[in-house]
Protein 1
Amino acid sequence: RRLRNGRWINISEYRTQDGGTVCIHTDITERRRAQQDLLRRTALVQMLREIALETNEAADIEAAIQSCLDKVCFHSGFVLGHAYLPDSDGDDAKELLSTDLWTMRDPERYRPFRDISSAMRFGHGVGLPGQVWASGKPVWIEDVQNDANFPRRPVAERVGIHAACAFPVLEQDRVVAVLEFFSDQPQPCDTALLDAVTSLATQLGRVTERKRSLMAMNKLRQAVEQSPVMVMITDLRGVIEYINPEFSAITCYRPEEVIGHTPNLLKSGHTDTEAYGKMWARISSGHDWRGEFRNLKKNGESYWAATSISPIRDQDGTITHYLGIAEDISERKEAEQQIEHLAHFDSLTELPNRALFHAQSRQILAGAKRHTNPVALLMLDLDDFKDVNDSLGHAVGDELLKLVATRLHSTMRQGDIVARLGGDEFTMILPDVGGPDAVDTAVRRLIEIISQPYVLEEIDLYVSASIGIAMYPDDGQDVDELLKHADLAMYRAKGRGRGTYNFFMSSMDREVQQRKTIETAMRAALDNEEFYLVYQPQIDAINHRVIGAEALLRWNHPEQGNMSPAEFIPVAERSGLIVPIGEWVLEQACMQAKRWLDRGDDPMTVAVNLSPIQFKHHDLLGMVSDVLKRTGLPPSGLNLEITESVVMQETETNLGLLHALREMGVHIVLDDFGTGYSSLSYLTTLPVDKIKIDRSFVDGITSDLVQQSIVKTIVELGNALGKRVNVEGVETREQLDILSRNRIDEIQGFYFSKPLSVADLDRLMDGEVQPVLRASPPR
Ligand code: C2E
Ligand code: CA
Ligand code: CA
């Protein structure tokens, strides 16, 4: 029986034989409490076991906590159970956040409490959950309605919540969740329950920890499985234990086809054994290795894999596996190779370009140095390629270059290099050629092969090439020097005519040196007034009167004395100095012609030579009209002498310029006629007023009948086209007599007069000096 004071007594009554009653009251409060306690503890152990089982089965941490909430409420008589989680997994968590994990015996009744709990956040030490979070220990509150540190008290009062118990879930020493339970009546601290939840704290913690790492594992596995890069794990011997799906996708090998094998399966034979050896040395010594492999797929196709291999270690740091991660970089490789190709090969001919040629020939020279072998470097330039381009179009020009490249390529022996440097310039390097005689033979052959006809779009084209040769080591120590010298030799070959070749000789260096010196001196010559003009009279073929004069430039060089224009005009042209010099000549000549005009003698024209360069680099039209304006010479008093190359090159522009000059009133003279390549019929279309038959035709005219008939033909053609005809270089009476059989308009030459100073010319015209009559010309 329970006494009013709360104690329990056991009452036993015995009838005595005499009819009496013995009543024994035993206070069993302690025994009963111990018994109850035992029962309770047994129930709680049952609870712990159930929780252990269920949480283990739970799919995730949330499910484990939920089942814990349910079980605790069920076994303890709590009416409410709820869980809080920190706002982050790490140590930087600031607040506990309410979760959706609830157990409620009467959800309707406790909804307001749930709502307020959900809305609250608890910092460290704040409120019941905050206190548990901070201390890491369970807390028991007999009646929250009497507790000052219970912010949810008003709502607790409304719904009738009294006792509370809260405990942490501990992973190691870290609180990863706080669980709180409430009762609908006040309850003194139940130590058995408190003991149970204390052990629950760590038990549940272990479960959540395991779940967490399992989840992390899962995440990792998924990441690896779904990774867009190839992943492979091997054991220490390199035997494959795992490959991910991307690996299968790229290599076409199914996992069961490679697992148990080594990656040798993928070898393409393009990576040398040495490279594999280095890789193994690195990874087995515990280092990472990175590199690129060219591997083979199952179908035999190759692919490039940018691979990184790292050792995997266990907790003790012992290497247990190797992890290989690889990316298929075939596309990038291909693009790189293409770019590489573009950077090193000429896109038209597919031959190596200048850059690659340089690199390759440097290697060859280095090798030759070691073995002291002579090496020949050839510079090859097509003759008159520009004409092909101009007259047949660039497409044909390109086609021709390709064919030339193919022919050059076909002549190559093992080790030779052929490259295109640009335009119609090719270069070859021939290692191990032997002596110059062997080179000579090789080059002759080349020239012959190049000059075979090219069959192009219905036309057969003939081209020739000029070749310059520089020998290593005699003609240069490096590629640049050899190229430079081969180039010089090539130009010299061109100077001798088409389709020839020439060896570089160091004398050419001197020539270049000399040209440079001339150029420097020439720059100063204009300022220093070292230039002057002489005038060679032009004689009327009928009455032998002076009707004009050709202005010819002279240079009184301070050191070298009078220098021939044949020597310095080419230098002036190369350097562009011909432009200011040419303008000066024109101005001087026009000034002089104006003086003759003003004197009122017989009409006198002046002829001025124009260089093709002046057509290219100058506002020629503006310059001529300015000079005419400045000097006051009427345009009809000026003859401009041009050569065929002017009308052959830059055809459209130059023809336009010539037309414009003629429209201005200036006369155009075609100088050195007959030496160029233009056909006679070409003459009909040219904007030219006069032709000057070159003096080479005059030279042999007295003895050579063919020469005579050539001159005859040219003169007749000129006559027929209504052009004036001048013959220059007439040195003897005999020549004059033969020429006079033709209808020539004017004559120029030493027979009548050499080029003269203005004063001498004046005297000549005044009749003071008679035409020289000599049998042979002065040299
Ligand atoms: P070119 O225009 O054909 O000039 C004629 C050259 O033949 C002149 O030589 C002249 O002295 C020479 N000559 C004239 N009659 C005879 C002769 O009977 N026998 C021989 N053997 N030679 C004769 P020069 O003055 O030495 O000029 C050479 C070349 O230099 C000229 O050839 C011309 O192409 C160029 N030149 C001269 N002055 C100028 C100039 O002011 N501007 C440009 N651009 N070129 C010039
Ligand atoms: Ca001339
Ligand atoms: Ca001439």
Protein 2
Amino acid sequence: MSHSAQNLHFVAQPSSRAVGDIIVPGDKSVSHRSIMFGALAQGTTHISGFLPGQDCLATMNAFKTMGIEIEGPDSHNNVTVHGKGLYGLTAPKETLNVGNSGTSIRLLSGILAGQKFSSTMLGDSSLNKRPMRRVVDPLKQMNANIQASDAGTPPIVCEGLADNQTLKAIDYHLPMASAQVKSCILLAGMYAKGITKVTEPGITRDHTERMLQAFGYPITVEKNIDDCVEKTRISIEGGHPLTACDIQVPGDISSATFFMVAGLIAKEGELIIRNVGMNPTRIGAINILQQMQGNLTIINERMAGGEPVADIVVKSSALQGIDIKAQDVPLAIDEFPAIFIAAACATGITRLREAEELRVKESDRIQAMADGLTTLGINCTVYDDGIDIIGGQLTSGTVNSFDDHRIAMSFAISALRAQGEVIILDCDNVATSFPSFVSLANQVGLSIIAKA
Ligand code: S3P
């Protein structure tokens, strides 16, 4: 992908304030799914608030390569998808390169598994190291002719189904809490004979289920309490049509979290973050930051396009270290790098466990954050499934982002409370999820320069 060519680094200076009234860009998970369902629906889908980040553009390009006409995003982030129905995709003439995007490769695997044509997907150097057996194995159980490399990583090669072959429904218990794996199986389930069932071990984001319903596809969602843990089982029968609809993408709570943390840790912090998606499966960061005594107030709660949204008022706060509750982990899974910066600025120890999934994100986020925090003078102890962070004074120094957008943005925010300059290496991938991050951060009083 072209975005890796610039070799940007950020130079972030300490600053005393994070003040302003901002809107964060559209939700990444919802934007991906709006393109996928729009492409597979009958009719024209209009999307507003689409995230023009590299990851979502990679999904868009993959569908264009498979014959779907898509207009936009225009300057207002509107996108129009001319859907061709469940069986309207055409064979891609080239390998589908989805860059840095785990959501693209894992969800597309479920769709491609149900096609009659062959396809190959791969990504950038970070994605090409990430685990794919978690999707390939259940898809094989569904009779898909799909394979990852011997190491279980991309490329994912999918041989088309023979004319007399169809996917078969399975009853699958997810071995880990993963919305990407759940979504992959549900998407394949649309092409399978029979009723596919997916049970998740904990709550994960439910945008796929919501969007299936918005596009008129029948699913059943059952919630049971098992061993004191709420388990959700989703059932989907193959062969129903998707009907085009209009999608309003809410602001991304994952992007908003950088500004929540900035407003909380700044000496002078008063931010209003507007139109943030408040889906109950995504609000772990708010729960955790409030438990840390963060002054976050949720106002103007409303529904937009089938998802709850609200505005968040953030005020500078004396944060306290906490033991993070296991049930909040999947609900805050992408927000931990930013939460770790809050922990570094808190009084006392913050402990996180049962978060081993963080080790297989765009980077090993436990180690990447521990390395950078240590460079900046913060004491932390790493565990297989988590970390202890002792709040203290951030100093200054050069930290590695490990090409991970969320690590880069977290350390950029940390400079608010550092004693000197924080330089963050390899920041190109910030464009995957939050292309306007630096300008929005500077608008509210941070001091970040992106240098080639
Ligand atoms: C996502 C699910 C999560 C998350 C990722 C987006 C999605 O991944 O980390 O950024 O859109 O379904 P996992 O399913 O691997 O937890």
